Amino acid sequence: MQNSVKDLIVWRKAMDVVKDIYLTARNLPESERFGLASQLCRAAVSIPSNIAEGAKRGTKKEFVHFLHIASGSAAEAETQLILVSRLYPNVTLGDVLTKLSEVQKMLAGLIRVKG
Q1: Would you say residue 1 has pLDDT above 70?
Q2: Phi, psi of 27 (to 5 degrees)
């Protein structure tokens, strides 16, 4: 497929989203440390992780399967970020939702092309 998962723009952008989400999660109340913050970070990490795993599987079918999983994780993270904005309006999300939306669109396009 490609030389390295690091060559995939969608993987690089997903990694940026993870960083932004971790920074956002740090601003949540301590009471959310093992709740929403933890869940949000796990969903975020799952996005580039599944892109990477699928890229290394070796077949288009498996790659697309893992891209679907990454897309599901992105939807999960989006839902959790919206929840953060509703529960904690003082927590600034910056442009993380915009970046996440871009990753979701790129995943959908890649699934269409590879599938």
Answers
A1: no
A2: -90, 0
